[in-house]
Structure formats: C-alpha cells, structure tokens
Amino acid sequence: MLNEKINVINVGTDVFCDAIKQQGIDALQLNWKPTEKKELSKRAKEILDKTMYSDFKIKIEEANKKVIDIINNTDPYWIGVKPAKECVPGVEDGMVMHSGPDIPWDKMCATQQQGGINGCLYEGYAKNEDEARKMLEKGEVRFVSSNDYHLVGPGSGITTPSMAVNIVEDKNTGFRGFCPPFEGPNRGGLAGWGIFNESIREHLDMVHDIIAPAMTKVLELNGGMAMRKIFTRGVEMGDELHSRQDATGLIATNELMKMLFEAPLTDDERKKCVDLLYGTVRFFHPLGMASAMALLEAIRNVEYSTIVTSMVGNGVEYGIKVSGLGTNWYNAPSPKITGEYVASDVNADEVLPWIGDSCILEATGLGGFAAAAAPAVMRSLDKTLNDGIEQTLNMSEITVCENANYLIPALNYRGTPTGIDIRKVLDTCIEPVIHGGMISTTGKRLGAGIAKVPYKCFEKAIEAYGDKYGL
User: Fold this and answer.
1) pTM of structure
2) For residues 191-208, b (16+ Cβ closer than 10 Å) or e, as one string?
3) Which residues contact 95 (CB under 8 A, 6 or more apart)?
4) Residue-averaged pLDDT of the chain
5) Which structural domains are found in the chain, ordered by start?
C-alpha cells in the first residue's frame, strides 16, 4: 500500500496536517469536532425514545413521507402584487404585522417597537409617535406575528394592511405565501428595518399606486412566473437563496423584461417597474421567502409529522412550528449572530439577536442548508467552500430527504438537505444553521452572519408532541 500515492485527511489539531505536507504528501485539514452534547429533560428523552424506537415511529415515517412528497412536488408561481388587506386572509385595518413569534408589546425589542410605531404612522392610525406608542401599548392597534397570517418579512418584518405584498401560489396545493417587496433605494425600509420618513412614504405609495397594479397585470397576462425552475438554476449557479440571490435575480429579471415590454403598460408604468428592478439589488429575496411560505403552509397540520414548518425570530425570542403540532409556537431566547461586519468599528454588543422571518428558507432546504452551493456566501463569512460543504453535510444529519429540485454541483448534484426533523435535532444535538443579516439594536445594517436555531425550541416541541399524541 505504501508504494501507492497517499492522500491524507486530518481531523483534530492542524500540526499533524502541516507535518504531513512538509513531507510532500497531499493533506486536507478537516475543520471538524464532535458535536457538543446537550441536556434533555427526562420527559423529552422518554418521548424521543418512543418516537424513534417504538412502533409509533411507523406513523411518523408515513406522515413525514407525505410531507416529503409535497416538498418535492412544490410548484410556486409569482402571481401578483397587491395591498395586504386585499389578498392576505385575516389582514384588515387596525393591524400591524411583525416578524418572529407572537410577543407582548412590553417584551419586544426597541427595533420592532419602533417598526410598529412607524407602521401606525404610515397607515394613519396615529398623528405622531407618542400617540402610536400609546395605541400599541393599549392594544388599540393589533400588533401580531406575520407568520400567523401566511406572511413573512425580513428583519423587523413590518407589514401593514395598505402595504403591497408579493403573492406566490403553489400550483400543486393552492396554498399561498406573501412577503412585502424590498423597498428599492431604501433597502430594508419600513418592512425590513422598521424605519420611516417622507422618502419611504413616497416610495411605498408609488409601489401601492403604480408598481403593484402594473406587475399584477403583467403576471396575470403571462399566467404568473414559475419560481421552481429559477431556484433550480440559481442553486446550480452559486445562490443559496438566503444571503445571495445574484443568479436567481438576474434570471427572473430577464424573464420579467420581456413580459414588461410586451404588456399594455404606459411608458411611465414600465419605466417605474424597470427602475425598481434596477435599483433593488436583492428584489428576488422576498419572492424566495413568499415561495417558502407557500410550501410551508402546504405541509402544516400533517398529523404525526415531526417536520419543522416555521423558524423565525423577533430579536427577543426565536420560535419554531411543527407540522404535526399545527400552528403552535415553541420558543427560546433568540440566538446571537456571528459573522463579518461592514464597518471596522462595530461592537459585538451592538448586534441584535436574530430577528426576521427569512430563515424559513432554511426550513425548505435553502440558505444555510445549501451552503455547499454558495462559495461566495461562505467567502463573505470568512469561510471556505470546504466549510460550506461540511455545513451542508452536517445539516443532512437532521433532515428527512434530499431536495429533488435543488441540486448542488460541489456534491455531485446531491439535493440540498430538506425537512428538519425535530427528533433528529434532539438525537444528534446538531442545531440548524441559518444565514442572514446582522442588525444593530438601533436598526442599522451591520453585516452578514450565521446563527443556530436554539436546541430548547425542539425540546419544547417534542414535549408538546408527546402530550398531543399520548406518548
């Protein structure tokens, strides 16, 4: 054997890898360490054992197979852009929606509170900030979780009834997901960062009055825009669809341009649509989020299923939902995000714990679960392609399938790991990795990073699962 060429993979301290390389032998340092074991309550451990090793697991596997079939056959279409109160079930005047699980006003982070205040000002519920704050404190304006209304939003996730939202429909199931479009030159704007000024008001009004009806007309004339094929191509071209949408955005823009110039629009309508696309670098991100929401709505309430259907944070708490447990939240303190800052003078204490709904993309096999497809994202996090491959393979330990639609070239076209199983998270102690932006406690964008979904969310979920199913 020693007469043959030797290739070495080293695990552990890198001094051994360096020594082997000095002898002229090819060696790869694997940045791996054993997963840290976590404490699980006695009750949770008993339920986990029953779900994995008793006859009851047959019911779970059958239920999860139903979910897998829905996931692999999802066919989302972007079908329109309309004011939320005209298209989102349950949304009406007197409401403001926020990201993350439901949370009382007095426990909210300041960033989300300010977003709620600004949402009230935009809707005209209040004349000034003090009046808006009092209305929210008293519950005169309902400040509720977007996720409980089929909506998702990045950052503070502010959506109001008059704000336009993208509408995505899964053609196979009829379920829909909704997400406000990015606000062009305002980047996060009201929906994302919760900020508000006259420029943002003018932009939101323009989207409401011109962009939304024009885009809806264009999409309706063309039977909508198919999202799945764009996702498939994008993953092959370096997007993981959470922190990077460069390829998917260009593919979608290419399709949209033809539609826009063939549609019976005025020159002003057409120009404003083109200007918005040109001025919004990540305009495709909300479409990915709305598509993910449509899929997750379709797999909610599958009896016995242990697959996660929502993962979102509000800067204070992070919550998950589980298919077999319906619409209930299982929360833990929102995790810290670590990564690369856009400025050198940023203090780690300025970073708000995870806030936003965009990590529902990870629940569909994208984002941190597709890291191996996105070397540019890993580089922006001061990591390597090998780190991305390792991260994706690690996520396969806690999922139920490989996605039939999102294939990764660096893994010989294996599908992205999809369908987070709460049992596998608890058994392996591997927490789901999520990608996303870092926001300051005052609402400023600080950079990009990663976080891990708290283990405690899954422990609470398995205990509730045992209670529901008598385990």
Assistant:
1) 0.91
2) bbbbbbeeebeebbebbb
3) 141, 142, 143, 144, 160, 161
4) 92
5) 1-30 (no CATH), 42-72+300-469 (3.90.1700.10), 76-291 (3.90.1710.10)
